Amino acid sequence: MSVRRRRLLAISVIAGLALAVVAVLLGRQLLERTLAVPMQRVAAPRGDYGSLAWLPNGWLIVRHEVSDREVQRPTWRLWRLHLDGSGLTPLPLDADPACRQTWYYGPITLPDGRLGFEQRCLGLKDESGRLLTEHSRYLMAYEVETGTVERLVAEQLTFPTGQYTWNPTLTRGLLGTGGSLCASLAWLTPTRIEYPSFVIEEDGRSWPLEDYFGDQDTCTRDGRARSPAWSPDGATIAFLASPQSMGVDGFARLDQPWNLYLMDPEEQQPRKVLANIKHPRGLAWSPDSQWLAFTGQRPWRGEGLWLFHPSTTTLHRIAEGEDGDLHGVAWSPDGQQLITIRDLRPYERHESELLLFDVSAIVAAS
Q1: Burial 304-320, CB ≥16 within 10 A → b, else e
Q2: Do residues 25 and 83 touch, judged by C-beta distance below 8 A?
Q3: What element of type H or E holds 365?
Q4: CB-side neighbour CA atoms (13 Å) of 153
Q5: 140 three-state secondary structure
Q6: Greatest Cα-to-Cα distance within the chain, rounded to the nearest angstrom
Q7: pLDDT digits (tens, 9 = 90+) for 75-100
Q8: CA-closest candidate to residue 114, choices 64, 192, 172, 53
Q9: How many domains does the chain contain in total?
Q10: pLDDT tens across 135-152, in order?
Q11: Are 335 and 288 in contact, with CB atoms under 8 Å apart?
Q12: 238 alpha carbon, distance to own chain's centre
């Protein structure tokens, strides 16, 4: 991009942020804009990419589906590649010999620079070959340079899992649990999983997130919560929740909107900062803990990749989406770029590509 174009983009961003300050002073809640930022496709082979992470050493880590000919079914592995698309190779993670299959999910960049991921064992057997369990799940940490692998949480995950996050010292984390219809959050420690004690309130109704883990046949009375993200400075936890789902039954829950909440890790009093997000996928803090990136749909604005600045309540759409084709988001280590996944056939999800966005002018103006 030319120097002149960069200057014009920076001027437009600065003007937008200035308007955001004025809007707050005038009592308006939100300034929402669409900004054109430089975008390029990562020159990697198209494939079924599921999620991604960007490590401090510059490697991109992606979850990628490949065909396992021995069992004639797909299997999920983690691959690494350079930003220019070269070097696409699977990580040398040893499969558990006691498992019929070993799958890898949810790559994230841990605060200490290692790669975090979920390891799933399908068909765990004992030494005699007797089946012990159909599935087992553990959160793991991988040091790319040395190949060292260790468990992040000693306790096995006993429920479906989603996005997870850790504080800067890796002494406490938060995990998204459940699926599309029923979902909540759980605390993580190096030894175990703990149920949450905080409550979401909306329009005079309240939902204790621990109710999800109770003995109940349906989650109709509950809201939904997912996509926790702990800020790199350790001061704030962001997550998505849908109290609007309370009392809604069946697949109608999928059409209920979500809100974005911020919470002090010690006080644990969630505060709504952005409302009415449809079908959000992923939530990620910038390295300086100033911006949140996510994909989803906004009223009258459509789908896309969004940047939200909580301090100024400024919301930028930096890319348009369609039919939920954008998902997964990761920041570059220097906070100047974002990468996301675009499904080329959203309803089939067998082919996708990686898109890279230059957000340096936006973050510099903040």
Answers
A1: bbbbbbbebbbbbbbbe
A2: no
A3: helix 360-365
A4: 25
A5: strand
A6: 72
A7: 678 999 999 999 999 999 987 777 87
A8: 53
A9: 1
A10: 789 999 999 989 999 999
A11: yes
A12: 11
**pTM for this predicted structure:** 0.87
Tokens of 5: 């174009």
What would the 3-class secondary structure string for 304-342 be? Answer: EEEEEECCCCEEEEEEEECCCCEEEEEECCCCCEEEEEE
Whether 279 maps to a domain, the answer reads yes
- The answer to whether residue 59 is domain-embedded is no
> Does the residue 231 lie in any domain?
yes
Q: Cα(268)–Cα(174) distance, rounded to whole angstroms? A: 12
Residue 315 · residue 272 · CB < 8 Å: no
Q: Does residue 249 lie within any of the structural domains?
A: yes
Check: CB of residue 103 under 8 Å from CB of residue 65.
Answer: no
Residues 6+ apart with CB under 8 A from 304: 34, 295, 296, 297, 298, 317, 318, 319, 320, 321, 326
Report residue 153 as tokens: 């949480």
3-class SS of residue 281: strand
- Distance separating the N- and C-terminal Cα atoms of the chain: 21
Task: Show the domain range for 229.
Answer: 159-285
Within the chain, residue ranges assigned H as helices are 3-25, 360-365
With beta carbons less than 8 A apart as the criterion, state whether 138 and 154 touch.
Answer: no
Helix, coil or strand: residue 196: coil
